[in-house]
From TrEMBL, chain A:
It is a multi-pass membrane protein. The keyword Transmembrane applies. Pfam families: BPD_transp_1. Gene3D superfamilies: MetI-like (1.10.3720.10). This is Sugar ABC transporter permease. GO terms for biological process: transmembrane transport. PROSITE patterns: ABC_TM1. One of its GO terms (cellular component) is plasma membrane. Its main location: membrane. It comes from Microvirga brassicacearum.
TrEMBL record, chain B:
Belongs to the ABC transporter superfamily. This is ABC transporter ATP-binding protein. It comes from Microvirga brassicacearum. One of its GO terms (molecular function) is ABC-type ferric iron transporter activity. It is found in: Cell inner membrane. The lineage of its organism: Bacteria, Pseudomonadati, Pseudomonadota, Alphaproteobacteria, Hyphomicrobiales. PANTHER family: ABC TRANSPORTER ATP-BINDING PROTEIN, MALTODEXTRIN IMPORT ATP-BINDING PROTEIN MSMX. CDD domains: ABC_Carb_Solutes_like. It comes from the Bacteria.
Length: 297, 366
């Protein structure tokens, strides 16, 4: 008979304790808030799924502002992905392949990635000002009325340019790593086959970069979907609510208005959206891997 | 279809080569005849891939010219030469089907679609790829992928030569043989010059009509497999080809006699041209040295006997020098005392590594 000893499970206890304190308990607190309404003096009242109903109904005040922020967020993510991914690929293709220039390029490209978010926000807040900022002043002197604190479009342009400035190098570095992994023989074979520059890109470089591109898109999507610090520092969500993304709205709701119940419901839905997107990416990537493994077998 | 002439070709990767040591490829003059099956054989780093890349135009030689028939193509880019190349690691276009892969070179050259399609199918039939024509190329095994690479070369009807750069490296052993026979078969059918780079002597000797042996950036011998085996022009060829390689023993030669210490070996030719200070060596393949019982030849000490399947090879010591000898089936040696019998027709004399021709022995007048 096989002797079963379950005492080994005790070894999991420390991990369980850490996870409980760092994740499970805080989440349960949020879940707890999301089903209650709070008044002063720490009085809580049971509200069931009321906040969730409000949140997911665009005709309600809460739902309206949530969906506005959500669409703004998705639009923002779509725009920066549409700019940063092609631009990152182009930069990676233009990067030198050998010599001291490689190191120089890599260092320069890594610089924006090393700057803290709030510093990036501050840099652009000043840079884009019409009175003392080099960019804002120059654009205004060209005769264009540029004012990111007053005009919605200008605020969006500034935030997008800032994000592109901050994060394109990440996409470029990932693509560069993908390009470097292509053996020379592929390029040589393509030359022998008489492939044009475009055909080389389409048939060799792009397929070989597929995996890193997927990761780049995932990282950039997640990062832009949870963007907070930079627009908070730059525009504070304004003008009006024009650049209020979900995270900014959430902080306003939770810490500004101290509506803990609404904010808890919103953060849970926000979390679920991110989980779903992660799951989709994960599935796509593992499917691609499985495809590859079938080849090896 | 073309004859490929290498005219005083040399290549250095550095910008300003000073002496011969800076050349990855030392000066070479060679003609690859139309329709020949050649192997370029040598150890890693001997310059054979450089030479191959010069022929295909991926590398521009530092000196010399390369001619296809009588046309100077030294400055032509790869795509303007009628060359196909199969690389060490299979190159297929991942996103395309096998059919699209085969059609790719023709599509790039703007061949009409119907001609392209017909040609792709014809080549697929030739390479036994018809079954998988519509499958994605990346889902196939390595040997299939190599066939596709080859096929992309063959579809171009104007292709003058196909270059193979160690194409069987990543192929499973039991499929290597099969793929190699496919190559031979295609060579017979299509009358295309094939140049096959390898460091594996079996591959070279079974594939090629003519083997070019390279060592340290230079061609040391060009010949048929028999010539390389029977008359290695350089001790390197003797070592490199054959398994085990040729015995190369330092010796002293006086007229038509070679001395290994005190053992005198009568030679069929005389070598009066040997100069003082040259490194003189005697070369003989293990196949032509027979192990005999003690007393039937030069005394030797047996270290061990290896059974290598088709033959038995004795590792022996003679006059203080380690060498290999073949063990005839009917011979059995007890103890470690034995004798060696040299087949003098296959004894070669080398000076500083190079084969010496020697002169016929003048018999004393009688």
């Amino acid at each position: 008979m096989k002797v079963v000893n379950n005492r080994a499970w005790f070894l999991v206890l420390p991990v369980f304790a850490i996870v409980a304190f760092s994740a499970i308990l805080p989440i349960m607190t949020v879940v707890n808030y999301s089903v209650q309404d709070t008044f002063g003096n720490n009085q809580f009242f049971w509200n069931g799924v009321g906040w969730f109903q409000d949140l997911l109904d665009p005709s309600k005040e809460l739902g309206g502002r949530f969906f506005d922020a959500l669409w703004r967020n998705l639009l923002f993510s779509a725009i920066i992905l549409a700019i940063e991914v092609p631009l990152g690929i182009a930069v990676a293709l233009a990067m030198p392949r050998e010599g001291w220039k490689v190191a120089a390029c890599l260092v320069l490209m890594a610089l924006p990635l090393l700057i803290p978010w709030n510093v990036v926000g501050t840099i652009w807040q000043i840079f884009a000002r019409g009175d003392i900022g080099l960019l804002g002043w120059t654009v205004n002197r060209l005769g264009i009325d540029f004012n990111y604190t007053g005009h919605t479009l200008d605020a969006w342009i500034t935030i997008i340019v800032m994000d592109v400035w901050h994060w394109t190098s990440l996409v470029a570095l990932l693509c560069y790593a993908g390009l470097k992994s292509i053996p020379d023989a592929y390029y040589q074979a393509a030359r022998i086959d008489g492939a044009s520059r475009w055909a080389v890109f389409r048939t060799i470089q792009l397929p070989k970069m597929r995996r890193v591109l997927l990761i780049a898109v995932l990282l950039r999507f997640m990062d832009s979907f949870m963007i907070y610090t930079e627009p908070f520092v730059l525009t504070g969500g304004g003008p009006g609510n024009a650049t209020t993304f979900v995270s900014i709205d959430l902080v306003k709701l939770a810490l500004g208005q101290f509506d803990l119940g609404k904010a808890a419901a919103m953060s849970i839905v926000y979390n679920l959206i991110i989980l779903v997107v992660c799951w989709i990416f994960y599935t796509v990537m593992t499917n691609a891997d499985a495809d590859r493994e079938r080849v090896e077998a | 279809m073309a004859r490929i002439t290498l005219d005083h070709l040399a290549h250095a990767y550095g910008p300003a080569p000073k002496g011969p040591q800076d050349y990855a490829l030392k000066e070479i003059d060679h003609v690859w005849e139309q329709g020949g099956a050649y192997a370029l054989l040598g150890p890693s780093g001997c310059g054979k891939t450089t030479l191959l890349n010069i022929i295909s135009g991926l590398v521009r030689p530092s000196r010399g010219r390369i001619l296809f028939d009588d046309r100077d193509v030294t400055d032509l880019p790869t795509e303007a030469r009628n060359i196909a190349q199969v690389f060490q690691f299979p190159v297929v276009y991942d996103t395309m089907t096998v059919r699209e892969n085969l059609a790719f070179p023709l599509k790039n050259r703007h061949v009409p679609a119907d001609r392209t399609a017909a040609r792709a199918e014809e080549i697929a039939r030739l390479l036994d790829l018809t079954r998988v024509l519509d499958r994605k190329a990346r889902n196939l095994t390595a040997d299939m992928k190599q066939k596709i690479s080859l096929g992309r070369g063959l579809v171009r009807s104007d292709v003058a030569a196909i270059l193979f750069d160690e194409p069987l490296t990543v192929i499973d052993p039991h499929l290597k043989w099969q793929l190699r026979s496919t190559l031979k078969e295609i060579h017979r059918l299509l009358d295309i010059t094939m140049i096959y780079v390898t460091h594996d002597q079996t591959e070279a000797l079974t594939f090629a009509d003519k083997v070019v042996v390279m060592h340290d950036g230079a061609v040391v011998q060009t010949g048929t497999p028999e010539e390389l085996f029977e008359r290695p022009a350089h001790t390197f060829v003797g070592h490199f080809i054959g398994s085990p390689g040729m015995n190369v023993l330092p010796c002293r030669v006086d007229g038509a006699t070679a001395y290994l210490d005190n053992e005198a070996i009568k030679l069929l030719r005389a070598y009066p041209a040997l100069r003082q200070g040259q490194r003189i060596e005697l070369g003989i393949r293990p196949e032509f040295v027979q192990l005999q019982p003690k007393g039937f030849g030069f005394p030797a000490r047996v270290r061990r006997i290896d059974d290598i399947g088709r033959a038995r090879i004795a590792r022996v010591e003679m006059a203080g020098r380690a060498m290999s000898a073949s063990v005839p089936d009917n011979v059995s040696v007890t103890g470690d005392e034995a004798a060696l019998f040299f087949d003098t027709r296959h004894v070669h004399i080398y000076a500083d590594g190079h084969l010496m021709a020697g002169e016929p022995v003048r018999r004393p007048a009688s």
